[in-house]
Amino acid sequence: MKYVGLLVLIALTLGSGWLQGRMTHRWGNRADFAPLVKRLDTLEAAAEAVGNWQREDSQELAQLAADELQCKGYKNYTYRHTLTGQHVSMALLLGPPGPTSVHVPEICYSSTNHTQLGDTEATSVEGEDGVSHQFWRLAFRHNESSGGRLSVYYAWSDGGPFEAPSQPRLTYGGRDYLYKIQLAANVMPGAEEDEADPVREFLKEFLPVVSQALVPPEGQPTP
User: Which residues pair with 123 in a beta bridge?
Assistant: First the structure.
């Protein structure tokens, strides 16, 4: 029996090592990222204006973050609502599923002088095209600011609708590539939890546009 246990342990070790290597593309990229990046670049023109939201600027992703995430392509924009003046920041990343799935705002914001308010909750957002997407939603306050809260949404996609799995590393472990979207906006002091949330309002108009820039898995139709 001890040999059986030893064989099981070896199998588990080799299996976890194989899965880790597959998710991080340790043995080379299985996906050809060139066409995926090319499709992602269509957002430059397609998403310059989304409804009443106007893109104000595009930011470079810090090289340290790009290296850590093994990022192959990204779009990092800030939008302003032309009527209300509210701002929403949007980052869309493309890369191998391992590193793309593990970096979440609960860790990032907490390490930059923010405190999370309440629990992270799953929420559905339906785009104006009628397609429903799932996001994780949470809120922060800056430890040195007396202003309102920061509303943050994030989710992943393998080319289809965005999803919010509880274990994204396992959910997307067998994929060749993965997209992650993260958005944030300041919510005015005193606003109710679901009242005047700029991120939700932005997503309703943005989701149909961004879906056109994602490459679905082989065998699935383009959105």
Answer: 135
